[in-house]
UniProtKB/TrEMBL annotation:
Residue ranges annotated for the Glycoside hydrolase family 38 N-terminal domain, each copy included: 40-248
Highest rank taxon of the organism: Eukaryota
Metal-binding among keywords: no
Keyword Signal appears in the UniProt entry: yes
Organism: Holothuria leucospilota (Black long sea cucumber)
Highest classification ranks of the organism: Eukaryota, Metazoa, Echinodermata, Eleutherozoa, Echinozoa
Single Gene Ontology BP annotation: mannose metabolic process
Protein name: Lysosomal alpha-mannosidase
Pfam families registered for this protein in UniProt: Glyco_hydro_38N
Residues annotated as signal peptide: 1-24
Record keywords: Signal
GO molecular function: alpha-mannosidase activity
One Gene Ontology cellular component annotation held by this UniProt entry: lysosome
Length: 276
């Protein structure tokens, strides 16, 4: 009797013990492993897909009218999924739900299951996650809340906890309002990153090492509106020597992994022999 009863008790205990492990796969702990004695830099590709700018939203999604601007968002997401397939160490960040939700509706169950597994493993991460990346200069706060709610509701309903963005990301809106920082803090974001600030301000912040700061969006809220905030180093472009996309001339990074492993092994042997 004791034995029979202990089985479900042990099972329940195992489930309880394993639950945090299962839930903890996405989020910050899903980053590739770091080395504690080094400065660890994670370079993660991300999107900035305008929900209508030079072309209409539909032209952007399907890749039409490419003589105006070469852009087809459905192909971006298709190719991201194909590349995530190839290597479990790969990561990607997607931002604009107006496009992702449309792409998701067009996928079969197999692709959806695969993409969900990437989200659960923290390999495909959503940041910002609004329907679009809203303007800050002339937008009413009701509209900001509504469009963020629309995107986040889709993510929560589709992917659960692992789909909820932790980082606010305004890589292209012009000028940044204090109220936007306050709203993002109150929406529960851990941090807010943006690109556009005045050239003088960026230069000064680089010199003073104040590119990152705590932005108190509304002192009357007693800290609830404070948010870790960072300005990007070079507008929304990559740092020097990392620009190898279609608009750039830097050579691609070419690494033959096996060759480097052999070389490192030889260096290690030489080093150990000379020490001995
Ligand atoms: Zn833009």
């Amino acid at each position: 009797m004791t034995k029979l009863c202990s089985v479900p008790v042990i099972s329940v205990l195992l489930v309880v013990l394993l639950l945090p492990l299962v839930n903890s796969e996405c989020g910050y702990q899903s980053c590739n492993p770091t080395k504690p004695d080094r400065l660890n830099v994670h370079i993660v590709p991300h999107t900035h897909d305008d929900v209508g700018w030079l072309k209409t939203v539909d032209q952007y999604f399907y890749g039409a009218n490419n003589s105006i601007q070469h852009a087809g968002v459905q192909y971006i997401i298709d190719s991201v999924v194909a590349e995530l397939d190839k290597d479990p160490k790969r990561r990607f960040i997607y931002v604009e739900m107006a496009f992702f939700e449309r792409w998701w509706r067009e996928q079969d169950n197999n692709t959806r299951a695969k993409v969900k597994s990437y989200v659960d493993a923290g390999r495909l991460e959503f940041i910002n996650g609004g329907w679009s990346m809203n303007d800050e200069a002339c937008t009413h706060y009701n509209s900001i809340i509504d469009q963020m709610t629309l995107g986040h509701r889709f993510l929560k309903d589709t992917f659960g906890k692992c789909g909820i963005p932790k980082i606010a990301w305004h890589i292209d809106p012009f000028g940044h309002s204090r109220e936007q920082a306050s709203l993002f803090a109150q929406m529960g974001f851990d941090a807010f990153y943006f690109a556009r600030i005045s050239h003088n301000n960026r230069q000064l912040r680089r010199i003073n090492k104040t590119m990152e700061m705590i932005w108190n969006g509304d002192p009357s809220q007693g800290g609830k509106a404070s948010l870790m905030t960072g300005a990007l180093y070079k507008h929304y472009d990559p740092p020097p020597a990392f620009c190898f996309d279609q608009n750039c001339n830097d050579s691609p990074i070419q690494v033959h992994l096996q060759f480097h492993i052999i070389v490192m092994h030889l260096i290690h042997l030489t080093c150990c022999k000379s020490l001995a």
